């Protein structure tokens, strides 16, 4: 593993908890989970509010016509925002009883969406970590452009950040509280098959969230692939990010000091800017109240994947 002392810049601060960064048409878009907002960042690092939802917001993406799509977490819905108006694309509640989370939208407008799969402990630091249920596996849901919902992949523990291989034929999914990246083959119609391990950082299952956090294993949250097929992971059990090769070799790690990183994206004019959504470590504060979330950036050597 190569540890690099890269220069890290603070781009913006004062957020609750940043999620779902996506580079789209020359700008970075990202959500503030507990703040219920979607933001954009332009080439001058100016942050603008795109929209304000009524509750929590996580994964974001874009339909082929440019409409913003986002996951309404507790309502368990995929929503569309167009010309100042919100509309429902799909109700996911028939397929999961738990909060929905991150998302990847492909060039055809198909949305792959994860969900918690169990009740994790509340975000405030005073509550016992045992308050949640035991860790349990769940599904990835696929929403078609027409709003049809179906199960795309199963047996995933807290499916979270998602990315694709450079050729667009492999979906890679972060299983946060299992400490693993899983991969699927993507058929022309968006169907997933060939479930397999891309990288296993833990080597075992965990019974509870406390168990996973105490293990010291890397727990990947948001992820993004680069043009060489390696994957940058935001590791909630560390203070930084790592670049991971297929099979699990850590190619590089970058420290973010006292902050943990929860989501990442590659963007910028040459796709070599690694944006990092960071905050104090998991369960060290209450992000639903505090506004300690920040957006960081650094330059890396291998570019991301150009938009299709």
Shape: globular
| Approximate strand percentage | over 45%
The profile of the biggest β sheet is: 5 strands, mixed
> Rounded to an integer, what's the Rg over CA atoms?
17 Å
* Average pLDDT rating: 94
Instruction: Give the uncertain stretches in residue-range form.
Output: none
* Count of runs of 4 or more consecutive helical residues: 1
The percent range for helix content is under 10%
Structural class: mainly beta
Strand order of the largest sheet: 1-22-21-20-19
Annotation, overall tally of beta strands: 25
Topology, element by element:
Elements: E1 2-4, E2 9-15, E3 18-24, E4 27-32, E5 37-41, E6 47-52, E7 57-62, E8 68-72, E9 77-82, E10 85-91, E11 100-105, E12 111-115, E13 137-143, E14 149-157, E15 159-164, E16 170-175, E17 180-186, E18 192-200, H1 209-214, E19 220-225, E20 231-235, E21 240-244, E22 250-255, E23 260-267, E24 273-279, E25 293-299
What's this, in brief?
By secondary structure, the protein is mainly β.
């Amino acid at each position: 593993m190569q540890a690099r002392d890269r220069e890290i810049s603070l781009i913006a601060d004062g957020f609750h908890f940043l999620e779902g960064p996506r580079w789209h048409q020359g700008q970075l878009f990202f959500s503030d989970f507990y703040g219920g907002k979607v933001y954009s960042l332009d080439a001058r690092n100016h942050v603008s509010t795109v929209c304000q939802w009524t509750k929590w917001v996580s994964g974001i993406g874009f339909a082929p016509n440019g409409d913003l799509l986002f996951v309404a977490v507790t309502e368990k819905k995929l929503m569309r925002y167009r010309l100042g108006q919100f509309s429902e694309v799909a109700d996911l509640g028939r397929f999961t009883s738990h909060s929905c989370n991150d998302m990847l939208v492909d060039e055809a407008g198909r949305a792959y969406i994860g969900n918690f799969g169990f009740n994790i402990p509340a975000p405030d630091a005073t509550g016992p970590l045992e308050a949640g249920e035991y860790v349990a596996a769940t599904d990835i849901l696929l929403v078609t452009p027409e709003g049809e919902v179906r199960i795309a992949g199963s047996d995933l523990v807290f499916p979270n950040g998602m990315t694709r291989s450079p050729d667009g034929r492999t979906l890679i999914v972060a299983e946060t509280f299992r400490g693993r990246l899983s991969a699927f083959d993507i058929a022309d119609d968006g169907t997933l098959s060939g479930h397999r391990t891309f990288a296993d950082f833990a080597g075992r299952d965990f019974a509870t969230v406390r168990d996973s956090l105490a293990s010291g294993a890397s727990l990947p949250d948001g992820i993004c692939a680069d043009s060489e097929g390696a994957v940058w992971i935001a590791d909630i059990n560390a203070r930084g990010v790592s670049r991971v090769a297929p099979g699990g070799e850590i190619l590089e790690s970058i420290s973010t000091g006292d902050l943990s990183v929860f989501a990442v994206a590659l963007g910028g004019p040459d796709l070599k800017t690694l944006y990092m959504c960071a905050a104090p470590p998991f369960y060290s504060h209450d992000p639903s109240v505090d506004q300690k979330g920040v957006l960081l950036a650094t330059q890396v050597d291998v570019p991301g994947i150009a938009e299709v």
